[in-house]
Specification:
globular, Protocatechuate 4,5-dioxygenase, Chain B, 9 helices, disordered N terminus, two-stranded antiparallel sheet, 245 residues
Length: 245
């Protein structure tokens, strides 16, 4: 499976961001999402925003210069960019947050599998359903330095997120319809309609998109469709985002 290292557009759609699940149950879809991305472009680095599932961070954001061992090899942090962002965000490195964070380690191996030369800049944000728009906005301001028109050609933003949690099928479908409105039309619908476990990441994505994004939902499924278990359902949207030309 060859990667498009020239970063050529696929038709009129050039994705610079996307949403991918961090549940291992959805691994088949995670793999396909990365495979499809590899046929479109080859980012120099991936910026990953993950929620802090275990509330280990003592700061609004956590960064690391660490690396991840995977069955495909080692994925390295872009230490230079991490240090730049650390200074801009005025925070300390916080490695301990990352060891058990499945919002990160679930998807890292696929980066090595399909983009073996790429590095990562991993950001874990505190908070869950309630978004501190001041702190999330500051993160977006910092990331804008890496996602201007030129930056979007060499960088890719991953929002690590799952969607509706802990409901039955009726509740899940209602929640997903709300999320889908934004995912299909982010220019006209508020990010606040999205029901997921990484709302800060969605807020940052929305700010970077500046109401000029178009999207493609690659897959939409849920844990019941994958496992057959019809209680405590989690749903998944796998998407790509590009700019309206």
């Amino acid at each position: 499976m060859s990667c498009n290292k020239n970063n050529k557009t696929s038709g009129d759609f050039f994705p610079w961001a996307g949403i991918v699940s961090h549940h291992n149950l959805a691994r088949e879809y995670i793999d396909k999402w990365f495979f499809y991305l590899s046929k479109t472009r080859y980012p120099k680095r991936f910026f990953i925003i993950s929620p802090d599932h275990y509330k280990l961070s003592l700061q609004h954001y956590s960064l690391t210069e660490g690396f991840w061992k995977t069955s495909f090899g080692v994925v390295e942090s872009d230490v230079y960019i991490v240090r730049e962002m650390k200074d801009q965000l005025n925070i300390d490195l916080d490695d301990r947050v990352f060891g058990i964070e499945h919002g990160v380690y679930t998807i890292i191996p696929y980066i090595k599998k399909y983009f073996p030369d790429s590095k990562v800049v991993v950001i874990v944000t505190s908070g869950d359903s309630e978004v501190n728009t001041l702190t999330a906005g500051y993160l977006a301001d910092v990331l804008e330095n890496y996602f201007d028109d030129e930056g979007k050609i060499e960088n890719f933003l991953i929002i690590s997120s799952d969607f509706s949690h802990n409901g039955n099928l009726i509740e899940t479908n209602i929640n997903d319809e709300l999320s889908k409105k934004y995912l299909l039309n982010s220019a006209d619908v508020s990010w606040n309609t999205v029901i997921c476990d990484n709302r800060a990441g969605i807020f940052v994505l929305d700010r970077l998109g500046k109401k000029k994004m178009k999207s493609r939902i690659i897959f939409h499924t849920n844990s019941m469709e994958i496992s057959g278990y019809d209680q405590d359902i989690t749903s998944y949207f796998f998407t790509f985002f590009g700019d309206i030309k």
